[in-house]
């Protein structure tokens, strides 16, 4: 419980700090533009819409600075490998959650910023047409003139300039439209249903972020929002605003001077953009490194096993790589958890046929030339920490078993080599599958481990349970007929397959009773609904006393 409290407390603290900075920036810049004397005449034209446009812009700058950092995979792997505080390290596993949170804030602030500027455009037009009184009219008529020593305040320079014309004929307007359209496409294509069913759509539209950031950098170059400048002699606003007809005629009221603010967005985003550029450069270097095939196996369950070799490639358990097949698409990269162990002289992935890209790969993989694949990685995940716990619960759903294949293989090698650094004393492994044939490629590994643990007198080291979730009565009848057999009729293992879903309350209670004073690492690679359920169980079955059983939840994120 204590570890969970620390982790959740740190997550809440980071969230509060982030939200606090957002609120501070919004309030500070709202008051700056709503009360600042240099914007008094600007407010005569725009009213409160000025502050409502500029305050969200400040929040946008801050969040656009953050949005790229959680997806810099090499940076996260570098931090994961450093000696930072364990609870802080755990926050790296929530990188995509934070990325989405920042994206939601960008979307909200963009909406507020856009609506406010649409109102500004309308009020600029009305001010130029004299609808808001003589002061607004006088301010709107000021133009750039060296002879008259005047500068403009209202960017709408004629009665023929409508908001629509202004949007499509100015830098601020055009870039604003491009930024907004890019953001709409990025956000809508990121919805779960599209990302799962049409990953290619998600992948390509997400790269509109390049256009988004380019437009963002140039958006302020038009310097549309202008402030009053200091003149000699000074222009006394309180005295002069009621007599605009005397501007330039009496010493107390020289014609006010205005200038656009210096663009600031680039200063916020330049650092993260350079980091991300380095990230992509490193990915390109990896893309150019040769990859050779060691073994290709296509299993009846439409699962492709690739064993690959790449010079200088080093991995840890549970890590993942991005694969690219130029014959299918030179731009698409897809993440896959490695199923090999660090002790092996190759790395492997298991790819299930889901979506257009994987289907094409499985159909053409046997005809691909040597070097027909590109690999980027490896990158760290929560599963890397599995050996930091004496007791671990591993839960995989479907193809989500892949990181645990790597872990169990590595454990077998460590036992084989009598590795003294192995802290793990016990593992509970649960695998949930919808179809019977999904067990085929992993059952061989479990058989080897089962036999090895038995020979070493360590039957209790590995407790595994396989669950068939997509079954009918014929499966049950068949199992009942062969119930007396020593091995399971589906997997060939001594441990019989369970039908249905686990009773997690019973499983957690069993683990707690068998490990009364251990910190149990609970690792999941599976759907979000199962993640929420297991996280709640970890809290419920963790003891308040840190000397007793504590469950620590970890989930894979790509």
Characterization of the model:
There is one protein chain. This protein is α/β, with parallel strands linked by helices and 558 residues long. It has three domains: 213 residues, no CATH class; 92 residues, Translation factors (Elongation Factor Tu (Ef-tu), domain 3, Beta Barrel); 173 residues, Nucleotide-binding domain of ferredoxin-NADP reductase (FNR) module (Rossmann fold, 3-Layer(aba) Sandwich). It starts with a helix and ends with a strand. One of its GO terms (cellular component) is NADPH oxidase complex. It comes from Sinocyclocheilus grahami. This is Cytochrome b-245 heavy chain-like.
> How large is the count of helical segments?
20
Q: Helix proportion of residues, in percent?
A: 40-55%
- Tell me the strand order in the biggest sheet: 12-11-10-9-13-14
Mean of residue pLDDT?
A: 83
Basic shape? elongated
Low-pLDDT runs of 5+ residues are none
Structure characteristics:
single chain; 558 residues; alpha/beta; Elongation Factor Tu (Ef-tu), domain 3; Rossmann fold; 3 domains; 3-stranded antiparallel β-sheet
């Amino acid at each position: 419980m204590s570890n969970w409290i620390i982790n959740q407390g740190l997550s809440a603290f980071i969230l509060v700090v982030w939200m606090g900075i957002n609120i501070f920036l919004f309030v500070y810049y709202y008051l700056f533009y709503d009360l600042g004397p240099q914007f008094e005449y600007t407010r005569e034209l725009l009213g409160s819409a000025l502050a409502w446009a500029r305050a969200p812009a400040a929040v946008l700058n801050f969040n656009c600075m953050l949005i790229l950092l959680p997806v810099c995979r090499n940076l996260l792997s570098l931090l994961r490998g450093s000696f930072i505080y364990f609870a802080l390290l755990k926050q790296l596993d929530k990188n995509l959650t934070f990325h989405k949170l920042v994206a939601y804030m960008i979307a909200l602030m963009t909406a507020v910023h856009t609506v406010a500027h649409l109102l500004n455009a309308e009020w600029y037009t009305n001010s130029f047409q004299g609808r808001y009184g003589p002061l607004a009219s006088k301010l709107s008529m000021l133009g750039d003139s060296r002879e008259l020593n005047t500068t403009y305040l209202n960017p709408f320079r004629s009665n023929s300039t409508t908001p629509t014309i202004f949007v499509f004929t100015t830098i601020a307007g055009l870039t604003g439209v491009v930024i907004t359209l890019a953001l709409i496409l990025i956000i809508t294509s990121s919805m779960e249903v599209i990302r799962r069913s049409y990953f290619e759509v998600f992948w390509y539209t997400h790269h509109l972020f390049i256009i988004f950031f380019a437009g963002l950098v140039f958006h302020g170059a038009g310097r549309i929002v202008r402030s009053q400048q200091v003149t000699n002699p000074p222009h006394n606003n309180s005295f002069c605003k009621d007599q605009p007809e005397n501007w330039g005629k009496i010493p107390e009221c020289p014609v006010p001077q205005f200038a656009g603010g210096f663009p600031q967005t680039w200063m916020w985003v330049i650092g993260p953009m350079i980091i991300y550029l380095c990230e992509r450069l490193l990915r390109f270097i990896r893309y150019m490194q040769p990859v050779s095939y060691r073994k290709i196996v296509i299993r009846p369950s439409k699962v492709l096993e690739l064993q690959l070799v790449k010079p200088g490639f080093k991995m840890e358990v549970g890590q993942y790589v991005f694969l690219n097949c130029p014959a299918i698409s030179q731009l698409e990269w897809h993440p896959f958890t490695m199923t090999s162990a660090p002790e092996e002289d190759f790395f492997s992935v298991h790819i299930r046929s889901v979506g257009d890209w994987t289907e094409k790969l499985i159909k053409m993989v046997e005809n691909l030339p040597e070097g027909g694949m590109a690999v980027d990685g490896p990158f760290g995940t929560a599963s890397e920490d599995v050996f930091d716990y004496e007791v671990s619960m591993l839960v995989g759903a479907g193809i989500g078993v892949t990181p645990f294949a790597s872990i169990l293989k590595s454990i077998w090698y460590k036992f084989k080599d009598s590795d003294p650094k192995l802290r793990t004393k016990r593992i509970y492994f649960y695998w949930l599958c919808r179809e019977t044939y999904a067990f085929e490629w992993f059952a061989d590994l479990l058989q080897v481990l089962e036999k090895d643990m038995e020979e070493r007198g360590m039957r209790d080291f590995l407790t595994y349970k396989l669950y068939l979730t997509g079954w009918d009565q014929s499966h049950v009848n068949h199992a009942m007929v062969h119930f007396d057999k020593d091995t399971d009729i589906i997997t060939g293992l001594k441990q019989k397959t369970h039908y249905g879903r686990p009773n997690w309350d019973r499983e957690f209670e069993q683990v707690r009773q068998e490990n009364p004073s251990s910190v149990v690492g609970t690792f999941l690679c599976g759907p979000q609904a199962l993640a929420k359920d297991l996280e709640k169980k970890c809290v419920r079955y963790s003891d308040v006393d840190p000397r007793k059983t504590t469950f620590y939840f970890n989930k894979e994120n790509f």
